[in-house]
Design brief:
The chain is an alpha/beta fold. 44% of the residues lie in helices and 19% in strands.
Length: 308
């Protein structure tokens, strides 16, 4: 199985690195100083589960140098989805598949428009990782899990092959029979975490302790779950309450990648998170005032700072 990682940061760099370490043919698409460091020193993973140094790997910013592959694992920022998708046409042959491990629920709609319905599998990634410095992936904690599957719930050969590859590489992986629901389950939590931590500029600890901010966190997730159900996703009626209890068990200093992006002056994914809840809610007649508030409060930060 030949695999291309479109995006080689915290998600793509980590999981692609583990697959390459296990002996799989993995090519990495990166850019800027991160790409330059990989070409010079190799890709390094700093992880409690064991460090990795990959000195002989293919890394490029030009997908044409890689050519057709069996599977593309896609993990760019949400705002770059369409541009990045159109740039990787050289990776596609007649049987190439693609899985996005991005966070949103509209990501695969874009990929289907570009590559067609048959090429697109669904995926969810769970990991706390980032580029610690160019060429180095910093893995925080021990969680590292991929959930993926075909949208029709059937067990395909390509999904089974990726599952076997992940297992060989020491990656916790699950083959899902209802990947659309799995994507929404993560989305409900992520919208709450990203919306509150970024708009309030605090980690989850203080947010869940204050009764007003705790209620706001709950409302964000409740709205997202209601919108998901209205779009045919089988989420329990008490799902937001369950996620709120889950938040109570998180480290007090846990925050979101969108909060980090705000602090660094980078563009925000808010349009694909709380903004998507608003848009998808409007499509089915559901009002989403908490998510609308997050979207509007962060509107002036959405494009980032030019001096960042």
């Amino acid at each position: 199985m030949k695999i291309a990682m479109m995006g080689s940061g915290g998600v793509g760099g980590y999981f692609g690195g583990r697959l390459a370490q296990a002996g799989y043919d993995v090519a990495f698409i990166a850019r800027g100083s991160h790409l330059a460091a990989i070409k010079k020193n190799g890709l390094k993973i700093d992880s409690p589960l064991g460090d990795v140094v990959l000195s002989d790997i293919q890394a490029t910013d030009d997908p044409a140098e890689i050519g057709p592959v069996d599977l593309v694992l896609f993990s760019v920022k949400l705002m770059d989805t369409e541009t990045a998708a159109r740039s990787i046409a050289p990776l596609f042959g007649p049987n190439t598949g693609i899985i996005s491990f991005q966070n949103g629920v509209t990501k695969d709609d874009i990929l289907r428009r570009v590559f067609g319905k048959a090429a697109v599998m669904g995926g969810v990634g769970y990991i706390a990782s980032a580029i610690g410095e160019p060429g180095v992936i910093k893995h925080i904690g021990t969680m590292q899990k991929l959930v993926f599957g075909e949208y029709d719930g059937k067990r395909s050969d390509r999904a089974a092959q990726l599952l076997a590859a992940c297992q060989k590489a020491g990656i916790t992986a699950t083959l899902s029979e209802n990947i659309a629901r799995d994507i929404w389950e993560k989305f409900v939590f992520l919208v709450g975490l990203s919306g509150t931590t970024t708009s309030m500029r605090f980690p989850i600890g203080p947010i869940r302790e204050n009764p007003h901010s705790r209620e706001f966190l709950f409302k964000i997730m409740e709205e997202a779950a209601a919108v998901g159900r209205a779009h045919g996703i089988a989420l329990p009626q008490n799902y937001a309450q369950e996620r709120l209890k889950f938040c109570d068990g998180l480290p007090v200093d846990m925050t979101s990648s969108m909060h980090h992006d705000l602090q660094r002056g980078k563009p925000l994914e808010v349009a694909w998170l709380s903004g998507a809840v608003v848009d998808l809610g409007e499509a089915v007649g559901i009002d989403t005032p908490a998510n609308r508030a997050v979207r509007d409060v962060l509107a002036l930060h959405e494009q980032g700072r030019k001096d960042a």
